[in-house]
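Researcher: Good morning. I'm working through a list of sequences from a screen, and I'd like to move beyond sequence-only analysis. For each chain I'm collecting a predicted structure so we can compare shapes side by side. This is the next one on the list. No need for commentary yet; just the structure.
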Amino acid sequence: MTLPEPRIVDFIGEHHILTLAVARENVPYCATCFYAYLPAQNQFIFTSDHETRHIRDVLEGGNPNVAGTIALETKIVGKIRGIQFTGLMQELEGDELKKARSAYLKRFPIARLMPALNLWILSPDFIKMTDNRLGFGKKLIWTA
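Model: Good morning. Structure tokens for this chain:
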């Protein structure tokens, strides 16, 4: 598996909130999720209850293909950076769940207080990073 270049990995590691986009029967929906990133596997881990709309849309709609963004909020055009991605999302179980739980709780210790920690993994297959520090509109593209 090829990993994204370090500038993309570093950007993802500097942030902790992503916007997740799902669709069910051609009706789109977005949700904001706190995430932990596993750089060696190029995977995002996030928690979300089964009753949330975005999880129901994925599970009941039968479409684990999702999209998302992570963006640096700035008014300075020369500093704009962000990523857009697509990938597959799935609920974690067994040994994968134990590893992911450890990584997620390391990043967000407060999550230990949650009554249930339903963890999901998002494996990107495409990432496009815009980094205006490299030149206006400069794009870095990664595909699985």
